[in-house]
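Tip: read the tokens left to right.
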């Protein structure tokens, strides 16, 4: 398969890639980035580590080009990391916390030869308090990772050892930023910000590690202080007036500072509301700020030809979002992946709605369930665990733990409008229970309980995927969303992962016919349905991914396949 660098990967900073502060929703002035070259080894699990095999560029997975390794970690392997770092006395304020953006899948961490903790789950941030194990001067961190990919039942997305079509090369290990921060002995662990435009309030909930009962909250409008208030306890409802609403057209954000004891964190928020309602004709609609709003979206899998799960730079993250915005789209469906928090920050500030998928897992998928029954009109009840490859209780229990971690990690991201617990029956089970679980965690967003196949007759939207037939819709008492469609592919020689075989739902070999077909699809099938009740569309997809060549841009981000102005002109018609 072809090795391809993106323009961003071609100028990678090997000393400390992705060095920007990784958590904009909870920011401190204490930050020591540990990205860069680490020692690594990949060995059979039964073999003892005697020496490291070379250098790996963290946070890129060993399977990726940018890692410098380009080796697959199998279910029979163990991946080893080591790095030394210097700590200065002035860095330490009280406690020292070691943060990982994400590590796939099980990792154990040691500091200076002493075990500090383990994490399971390949998509979620986690933190260890390493205060008692560090010293001034040189310190050693070691990490070991195992990842069964599809040999296990854990959340894994589209990773498989037998890649091809819509399934991709597996990736393992550290794939988001590793960093240190120092905090006081008593500090703010997390904050939860909930805007309520109906009551004109921002609800603030603060979680502390210990011993803090009071805090001061300051809100800024474009660096101008507009509110300062003291709170006792960990919750407060702050009344706002004359505020601006957040939307893709006007992504207005307010800054926030919280001072508690000796700790200070900064964040931001946007005043907005996502809900369902009916328009003046009585048609069910998705609502933004209590008004009908059409979600014109793109499926975004977040893969990169050189970094796989990991974008080569912050600039690369911004590029994808900005390009789709320039072409007139207002929503990205983040498909079967959770991004670093900076990606959501850029969506927040640039004005891009997000539908956030949960990561699929479970056993080996039943082809009748996921690829035959939906196309012959058979709808299955998702309490039939074996049919949905969910008979493993460990997977079902881990699904809820992971879902909670995802919602809590992303709760403050202004742009997230929709949670998508299940996609096309991959590892789907008890979606009514999952819907209630998500709703209890977060009442501020809508939920697509079963995107694509096997709708269970509930949830906030009626969600369908249509690829191989004309697009039609049946009115429902829920807003009707076309959550996947299109998938037109264009062969772009010189910019393909696999020149000999490429996948798409309809294939084209020249740009002119490809663009004409895309415009015709929207004009003849999408636009006429909006007045009849179509509330959202998700075109497949933003970029090519390995064999899939149905992206608007190539996998290496070097070729935009459509004329941007033509697509923008078309998208300006997709509104209510």
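Filled-in amino acids:
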């Amino acid at each position: 398969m072809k090795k391809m660098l993106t323009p961003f990967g071609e100028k990678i900073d090997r000393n400390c890639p992705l060095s920007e502060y990784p958590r904009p929703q909870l920011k401190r002035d204490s930050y020591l980035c540990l990205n860069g070259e680490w020692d690594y080894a990949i060995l059979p699990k039964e073999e003892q580590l005697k020496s490291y095999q070379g250098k790996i560029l963290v946070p890129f997975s060993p399977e990726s080009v940018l890692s410098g390794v380009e080796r697959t970690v199998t279910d029979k392997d163990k991946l080893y990391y080591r790095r030394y770092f210097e700590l200065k006395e002035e860095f330490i304020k009280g406690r020292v916390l070691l943060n990982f953006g994400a590590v796939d899948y099980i990792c154990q961490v040691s500091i200076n030869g002493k075990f500090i903790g383990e994490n399971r789950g390949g998509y979620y941030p986690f933190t260890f308090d390493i205060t008692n194990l560090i010293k001034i001067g040189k310190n050693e961190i070691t990490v070991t990772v195992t990842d069964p990919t599809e040999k296990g039942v854990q959340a894994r997305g589209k990773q498989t050892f037998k890649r091809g079509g819509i399934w991709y090369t597996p990736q393992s290990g550290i794939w988001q930023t590793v960093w240190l921060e120092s905090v006081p002995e008593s500090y703010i662990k997390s904050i939860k910000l909930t805007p309520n435009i109906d009551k004109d309030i921002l609800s603030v909930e603060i979680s502390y590690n210990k011993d803090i009962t009071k805090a001061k909250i300051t809100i800024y409008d474009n660096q101008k202080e507009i509110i300062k208030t003291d709170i006792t306890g960990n919750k407060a409802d702050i009344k706002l007036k004359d505020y601006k609403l957040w939307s893709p057209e006007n992504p207005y954000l307010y800054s926030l500072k919280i001072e508690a004891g000796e700790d200070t964190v900064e964040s931001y928020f946007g005043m907005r509301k996502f809900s369902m309602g009916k328009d003046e004709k009585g048609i069910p609609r998705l609502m933004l700020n209590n008004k009908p709003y059409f979600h014109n979206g793109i499926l975004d899998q977040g893969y990169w030809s050189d970094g796989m799960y990991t974008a080569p730079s912050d600039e690369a993250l911004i590029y994808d979002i900005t390009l789709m915005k320039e072409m007139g789209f207002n929503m990205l469906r983040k498909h079967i992946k959770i991004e670093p928090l900076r990606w959501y920050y850029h969506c927040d500030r640039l004005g891009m709605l997000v539908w956030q998928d949960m990561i699929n897992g479970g056993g080996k998928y039943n082809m009748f369930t996921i690829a035959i029954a939906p196309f012959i009109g058979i709808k299955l009840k998702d309490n039939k665990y074996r049919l949905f490859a969910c008979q493993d209780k460990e997977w079902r229990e881990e699904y809820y733990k992971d879902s909670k971690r995802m919602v809590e990690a992303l709760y403050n991201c202004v742009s997230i409008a929709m949670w998508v617990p299940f996609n096309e029956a991959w590892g789907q089970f008890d979606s009514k229970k999952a819907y209630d679980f998500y709703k209890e965690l977060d009442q501020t967003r809508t939920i697509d309980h079963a995107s694509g196949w096997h709708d269970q007759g509930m949830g906030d939207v009626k969600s369908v995927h249509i690829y191989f037939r004309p697009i039609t819709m049946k009115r429902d008492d829920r807003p009707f969303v076309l959550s996947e469609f299109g998938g037109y592919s264009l062969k772009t020689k010189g910019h393909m992962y696999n020149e000999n075989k490429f996948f798409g739902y309809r294939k084209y070999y020249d740009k002119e016919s490809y663009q004409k077909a895309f415009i015709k699809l929207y004009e003849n099938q999408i636009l006429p349905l909006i007045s009849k009740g179509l509330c959202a569309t998700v075109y497949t997809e933003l970029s090519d991914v390995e064999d899939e060549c149905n992206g608007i841009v190539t996998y290496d981000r070097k070729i935009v396949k459509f004329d941007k102005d033509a697509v923008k002109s078309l998208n300006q018609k997709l509104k209510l």
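The chain has three domains: 9-183, 188-269, 274-571. The chain has seven helices and 32 strands.
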